[in-house]
Design a protein that fits this description.
Blueprint: H1 2-25, H2 33-36, H3 44-73
């Protein structure tokens, strides 16, 4: 479960970062999910920031699960 959460965290952070890089620098055309969703037009920065924050939160949850498993067995 924690590996799945770590992977999801990585994907969320990368997608958010790709959206921000694309918005501010114009690089990574077509890499981000945010640019492909039409209903987010005009809200790309906010959506990308939400993805980054959500990715960090999911990563924290994965670390917490890892800590809980280690403390229970140790």
């Amino acid at each position: 479960m924690k590996k799945l959460l770590e992977f999801a965290s990585l994907v969320l952070v990368l997608q958010g970062a790709a959206g921000l890089v694309h918005h501010f620098f114009g690089w990574l055309e077509g890499w981000g999910l945010v640019q492909r969703l039409g209903f987010l037009t005009g809200l790309e920065i906010y959506a990308s920031l939400v993805l980054v924050v959500l990715g960090i939160a999911v990563g924290g949850l994965a670390e917490r699960l890892r800590g809980g498993v280690a403390s229970a067995s140790g």
